[in-house]
Amino acid sequence: MNDIERLEARIAFFEDMNEKLSMEIYSQAQKIQMLEGKVAKLAEKVNFLSEDQKSEIPNQRPPHY
Length: 65
Known about the structure:
Elements: H1 3-56
């Protein structure tokens, strides 16, 4: 194998690896976007529940006093 063939083989390898890495990055970006949406929904639920509980907690002494 001469120098040009070796360079062509390396270029083909790097092009293939670049394509695979690009596809993996795209896949991970989609997963991150989905998880960010789920986190936002959970944060809304937590805020809603914490606000709801504030109004339900009576300002009384605990029974052990």
